[in-house]
Amino acid sequence: MTEGPEAQVRQAEPAEPAGEAGARALPRPAPAGLDRTRAAAVRLTGGWPLARIIGAGVLVAALLSLTAIIIGGLALADGGGASALDAAFIGVGVVLFLVVAVFALGLWRSVILPLSRLTADARLVAGGDFGHPVGSPGGPREVRAVGLDVDLMRKRILAELSALRARTDDLQRSNSELEQFAYVASHDLQEPLRKVASFCQLLQSRYAGRLDAKADEYIEHAVDGAKRMQELINDLLAFSRVGRTAQKLEPVSCALLLAQAWANLAAEVRQAHATIEQGELPVVLGEASLLTAAFQNLLSNALKFRGDQPPRVAVSVRRDGRYWLFSFSDNGIGIEAEYADRIFVVFQRLHDRATYPGTGIGLAMVRKIIEYHGGQIWLDAAATSGARFCFTLPVRPQDEDDA
Length: 403
Hints:
The protein is α+β, with helices and mostly antiparallel strands and 403 residues long. Helix content is 58%, strand content 10%.
């Protein structure tokens, strides 16, 4: 269970009802964020809202009208009598004032209010409520056309979201069925395979050397095949169990889990004369058994793919924002950068089974465990000697302020 690469099983998001009712359930961006974005756009363009521009124009026109009326009134007061020019001046001012007032009222009702309604509807849609219809805001033809275009865009987005939810639902169901099949198949295959393996071993123990060399060779192949198939099924069963029964994540010490994983490999460690160096490791939220299995697979890879020198493993960790960044380095034969993705695919092997035995599920299991805990894992292509695997695990909420 130490080598191996995983076919990345995409974790599909839970499907929601298609159509407008489903679209209403979409998470909405925080209004404060929208307001900040909108305010930044206004500052960049230096623009005023249309209502303010029209209001400023009306105010200027009204001031000019009042100025004309005041000047005419002062002229009448100083002259002691009303001349035709002064009377006309005052009349023009009054008429201009009334025209401006009527124009402002009409502009407000026919343009500003429809645009305000259109803006309110558009903001709801931009906030994630794609099920909210953008009705006709009224007003001029251009404003109505903009409202119609916005509603058509909303319906197109809604249709695409519905199709995406349907595909997501199918992907989730497919992944679930595949995992269920892997679990059931590997579990149900255990009993018949156990019988085949035991009878092959019994045949080998009783008749080894009593038949010809070819018979002994055939029996050896049968026993070896049964053992490898049993190991493969056990690994596949363990792989399919990761995340099937989600348990509550509890604080676990990575130092203790690493020590346990190293102890589980005591026989291999003694045989290879391996050593390990580790820095201070954090406490994270996780399932102890799964993280131990991930550490053990990484350590086992370092022991298996060793070079001429005794294996030396270095484990370190540092804080990277809201995550812990782990590094597992070794002095083994290393991995070419071109295989950085392939090594995490299930059953993908870079070496023949005779030289490096294994099922090809180990690294796939590691990736699934790390992603189950909310992290990511990758091969560090910058390593000049040996192999270096890096992965992240989230920082506990109570430790986020300690950075």
